[in-house]
């Protein structure tokens, strides 16, 4: 009877004010999490060259940027697993506070980096906090909301990331591109999320499911919380491997395909300036762009930030759409739809629009973002449903952030593919080749269990 009543309700009916508060605070943590991640993306064209010898070729700068991005992915993997385990042991609320403090303070410290390796180390430490925050927040939202609202609420949670990316875009356009401030001030802004921890401490309480799991752990040794070895025990090992590989594909295509949308727009905008200076070759192009007046540099930067914003807006709509699609065609069907769409979107942009006008590419970038980013909401929805409460934070953190670790190799491959010391491929060719990773995600669905309509495992 209760099942029939729940089935007839809209997803938001019966959601209490406290549930909305949990979603709001979790989303704010994820928003600032993404700001800390994307402020580097928004400023790396300015930050890394300032930490390297003058005249360093673009391909070499890109290689060092990929090292820093790789350090971020590795740090996310380490932090996601450690803080995910910690949240299963000491609770969601306290762990969330620790993760937010960690990513806020180390992002601010990045403003004082003097060398590329300092930048890479600080990105690693920032990522430990951001990776941990996602694991804790997604587990908490899943445990607080009722079954019928789980996909919607977790989809909204993950989609809130676009607000953080948009704030990074805004900081890139108004702070990083402003010669009176520069990239260092963009990182100083990263200290502000630390204030959120006061609200978390004041308002949030531990989910009842976690309390019950804690009590079971005290009574039975076999029910201990936060043990990573349990993820590979009978009954969970398949779920763990499916989640890990799905996240790896998604994060590899994010850094190897999705992120290049804005860079393609920048490349197209730079083309007339290079033609006017008759610059030929990588070194000549770097020197010609470096010699441009500040006003022209700022124009190019603003076009790049517009591209990042358009991709982000489209991606946000994709993330919001994933939850409703899950409810209609299931988790596996939604993953299938978005991964095939991601491949098609990438081929259209990088093979069909490499010589398009900036205006034409701007029209396509939101669609590209929708198709290549929307699948990421599935990780917040799907991973908490794969694991029982005693290892939910551990499992979700291991899968999502373990995917970051494995995807870090794609950044090194991407850097080598584009570097003058490697294959020296174009941006378009590199992104096209890596977009075929979406097909691997399609194949993985053959082993993925369907969790639509099921209660969270206890």
Briefly characterize the structure.
The chain has 458 residues and is mainly alpha-helical. Helix content is 77%, strand content 0%.
The percentage helix is: over 70%
Tell me the CATH topology: Growth Hormone, Chain: A
Tally the beta strands: 0
Give the helices and strands as they follow along the chain: HHHHHHHHHHHHHHHHHHH
CATH top-level class: Mainly Alpha
Average of pLDDT: 86
Largest sheet: none
How big a fraction of the residues is strand? Answer: under 5%
Number of helices: 19
CATH-scheme architecture: Up-down Bundle
Tell me what you see in this structure.
- The radius of gyration is 22 Å and the shape is globular.
- Helix 2 (17-51) runs parallel beside helix 6 (147-159), helix 2 packs parallel to helix 7 (161-176) and helix 12 packs across helix 14 (294-352).
- The protein has 19 helices and no strands.
- With 458 residues, it is mainly alpha-helical.
- The chain has a single domain (16-199, 226-447), classed as Up-down Bundle (Growth Hormone, Chain: A), CATH 1.20.1250.
- Helix content is 77%, strand content 0%.
Secondary structure blueprint with pairings:
Blueprint: H1 2-7, H2 17-51, H3 58-90, H4 92-110, H5 116-144, H6 147-159, H7 161-176, H8 183-188, H9 196-203, H10 208-219, H11 237-258, H12 260-277, H13 282-290, H14 294-352, H15 358-373, H16 377-382, H17 392-418, H18 427-435, H19 437-444
Helix pairs in contact: 2-3, 2-4, 2-5, 2-6, 2-7, 2-9, 3-4, 3-5, 3-17, 4-5, 4-9, 5-17, 6-14, 7-14, 11-15, 11-17, 11-18, 11-19, 12-14, 12-15, 14-15, 14-18, 14-19
